[in-house]
Amino acid sequence: MAWIFLVVAGLLEILWAFSMKQSMGFTRLMPTVVTLAAMFASFGLLSLAMKTLPLGAAYTVWTGIGAVGALFVGILVLNEQVTFLRMLAAGLIISGIILMKFSSQPG
Fold first, then answer.
1. What residue ranges in the chain does DSSP mark as E strands?
2. pLDDT tens, 67-101?
3. Are residues 10 and 61 in contact, defined by beta-carbon separation less than 8 angstroms?
4. Which terminus of the chain has a smaller tally of CB atoms within 10 A, N or C?
5. φ, ψ dihedrals at 105, nearest 5°
6. How far apart, in whole angstroms, are the C-alpha atoms of residue 61 and residue 55?
7. What phi-psi label fits residue 26: left (phi over 0), alpha (psi between -120 and 50 degrees) or beta?
8. Following CA atoms 86, 87, 88, 91 in sequence, which dihedral angle do they give, to the nearest 10 degrees?
C-alpha cells in the first residue's frame, strides 16, 4: 500500500507544480487553492508511505515522479522545448526511480 501512496503523492506533486505555475506567483485564486490542496495531500501521502518505506527510496521516487511528470506536462501542455538532453535526463531519472524501487525490496 505504501508504494501506491507514494505514486499518488508523486502525481499530486505534478499537479501542484503545474497549478503553481498557473497561479502566476499566487496572484490567481483558483490555481493557488489547487496548489495548496495538492501540496497538502501530496505531503500527507508521502508521510504515510514513509511509515514503511526507507527515507531515501520514498523521497527519491516522490521527487523523481514530480520532476519527470512536470517536465512532460510542460512539454505537452505548456509547449516547452523538447531536446535530446532533456529527454536523456528524464530517462536517467526514470532509470533511477526504477533502481531505487527495486533496491528497496526486502531481502
1. none
2. 999 999 999 999 999 999 999 999 999 999 888 88
3. yes
4. C
5. -75, 140
6. 10
7. left
8. 120
